[in-house]
Amino acid sequence: MEPTKLSSNEKPAVVLQAVPLIEKHKKIYIREVKGWWDSWRWVLVFFTQLLFYGLPWLQWNDRQAVLFHLAERKFYMFGLVLWPQDVFYLALLLIIAAYALFLFTAIAGRLFCGYACPQTVYTEIYMWIENRIEGDRSKRMKLDKAPWDARKISLKLIKHAAWIVIALWSGFTLVAYFTPTSELIQELPFNLSGWELFWTFFYAGFFYMQAGFLREQVCKHMCPYARFQGVMFDPDTLVITYDSERGEPRGAKRKGEDARGLGDCVDCGLCVVVCPTGIDIRKGMQYECIGCGACIDVCDPVMDKIGKPRGLIRYTTETALSKHLSHKEVVAHILRPRIVLYTVILVGIVIASAWSLATRVPLKVDVIRDRSLLAREADDGRIENVYNLKIMNTTEEPKRYALSVEGMEGVEIVGERIVEVRSAENHEVTIVVRVPPESGKKGANTIYFDIKAQNHDKIAVHEKATFLMP
């Protein structure tokens, strides 16, 4: 049959095709893989979870070693006690974390995402449970396609029950960082406060939803780091890369077979089925790649089977691929100005923060003049002002502080000049200060309070205040 010819006055029909605005989600069935990178990933899983679940149970000086006690407004971190006035150190910690992230990303891509990110770690734990209960990839696919019978229902219930138990325990652990674990244990199960219950179930639900259901969707659509990571890479950043020059064109081959015209890639597709985000690394660098190394672990054994060298998929740089650099040359390119700058700044901030913590005085004093009574004349004719001193003992041992005042001729404290403050306590004391009427000018005069710990000369504070003369 001959094709229909259009006359010169006729125009071809325009065919409109609907394109969905949002791509329909397809569940990813990930195949388990064993290898060097997988082993390191599990090392980080055990390490991070040992810290998270173990720290609330660790004791230090008869208290919880790590506790952010919001009710008492004190942060305990082993031998360190921080108060709300120490929020400066929180800012330093955030700056250090940001610069460390920039440095590691510039050197080796998304290392944090692939090995230490909570989303990756918890997803790895949940997938391990799923594989133990429902079976490997093919069995899980068959189970999901099978009709709902007693076996399928029981397997799903067991899996979700295990997930929920872990999620609830994680929520309880999170709350234990803000309320002492010993108190939480005593309050279980029905005496927990509203906020403790809320955060336990909120975090558990968040954990359960993200690690059990959303998984790669968090990395692809919710995580902002996946979006701006591209501007942090450069041609000398180590990333997981497919060597297309060596691998293309793809085609099946056997060990020892000289398949002329074909590259080393046998087009087995294993690198796709092991990827947590379901991408094909052979299509080039993609923002969904979290740098976990699973594709490397599954590709290297395939290269062994066909007698080809490993490294068809490997950690390398764009420069190394284009210029065929050796391993030593790749390492040499890592020390570039950008990395040196990040490292110098990071080390400088860490040293400055450590020095500040090591030399800080474990005593804080706030001096507030009693504004309800500006100034008054005492029985002996002297002028007096009243002050409220808030003395914070940030050490974990009781202290006795000697109080004195200076700055005006004849100025002195009337009454008790020794204050006892218990360990990690905020103590408030009222102080009466008197001066001779001729020792100061009318209006505001500057004085200084000296608060010194007895038997600890280095623990002292020199605090400025204002004395009003009528």
Automatic annotation (TrEMBL):
The chain crosses the membrane at residues 40-60, 87-108, 161-178, 198-214, 339-358. Keywords: 4Fe-4S, Electron transport, Iron, Iron-sulfur, Membrane, Metal-binding, Transmembrane, Transmembrane helix, Transport. It comes from the Bacteria. Residues 256-284 form the 4Fe-4S ferredoxin-type domain. One of its GO terms (cellular component) is plasma membrane. InterPro entries: 4Fe4S_Fe-S-bd, 4Fe4S_Fe_S_CS, Cyt_c_oxidase_cbb3_FixG, Electron_Trans/Redox, FixG_C, Helical_ferredxn, Ig-like_fold. Signal peptide: none annotated. GO terms for molecular function: 4 iron, 4 sulfur cluster binding; metal ion binding. It holds the Pfam family Fer4_5. This is Cytochrome c oxidase accessory protein CcoG. It comes from Candidatus Dechloromonas phosphorivorans. The gene is ccoG.
